[in-house]
Amino acid sequence: MKKVKVAIIGASGYTGLELMKILINHPFFEIAYIATTEGGMKASDLHPSLLGVFEQDVYKADATQVAKVAELAFLALPHKAAMGFAKELLSLHVKVVDLSADYRLELEAYEKFYCEHEDKENLSSAVYGLPEINKEKIKQAKLVANPGCYPTASILGILPFLNYLKVDAPIFIDAKSGVSGAGKKPSLSAHFVTINENIFAYNPLMHRHEPEISEKLRLVSGQEFEVNFVPHLLPVSRGMLVSSYLQTNELINAKAILEDFYKEAKFVRIRENPVDIKSTAGTNFCDIFVTQKGKSLFVSSSIDNLLRGASSQAVVNANLMCGFEESAGIPILAYVP
Length: 337
Known about the structure:
Number of strands: 15
Radius of gyration: 19 Å
Strand order of the largest sheet: 3-4-2-1-5-6-8-7
CATH architecture of the largest domain: 3-Layer(aba) Sandwich
CATH topology of the largest domain: Rossmann fold
Distance between the termini: 37 Å
Shape: globular
Structural class: alpha/beta
Mean pLDDT: 97
Strand content: 15-25%
CATH superfamily of the largest domain: NAD(P)-binding Rossmann-like Domain
Largest sheet: 8 strands, mixed
CATH class of the largest domain: Alpha Beta
Low-confidence stretches: none
């Protein structure tokens, strides 16, 4: 089978590296173009771990050049920067999987929490790339908005119970992420002296992923829920643990509902005990555990923030967009011990 040629725009960050690691050995995709804002180097100059493994040239990002060599592009760019590239690539008939926030939200919410949107036309046709709810739409999409890491873990944990929740009861989400979620650029919060042997909340009740979670729960259920989201930074490189506290309007068998909801899901595993981050690190799995006390539910979900929360989920979306099996080339073995 002839491989589909793909491009990675924004290859210098952690998600760019993870995309390369997955795509280097992908059975149906071939990396034809890698770019940063600067270019003029090798992939192993960006990421020394690729030395002797992947030495492809890195170019200065140019949508016209991408269109000459690739059918699909992954955009691992910051918000605002991504939409300009996406708009141009789509006009050149290149499919796009965007890992930024630029196409995840409805216009009003995006402009409230990010910036003015410069590509309203494509925003209205973008498909939210959570395969568990939009698989068939993703298969037909030209532009997929890859979900955020916190929303992925939060939404997957809450989805099965939406029809049973008390609409007037607030949803509380306590989320914890490894430091790689803060990105590669140095910052005070990610400084070794700050994060080592430490844990702290940041942007409590004000994080930009909260409206993404709220919006998707509303679109799926048709109900407006009050979502209270508090993220924390963990002193680990990767991994994400999300604990959601829910109130149901009737007594339910939560575990049976969870198991039934995900019985066909390839990348959701139901756990008998509370989940941990090591069992999903290095994989595209989301592990979920639920327990209950009467009408109160505790739902715990775990993902790899760089993979299920970004790069491997992006490749799953690309697989679906190109007509391949969703699990093709997707990592499933955890980094343990």
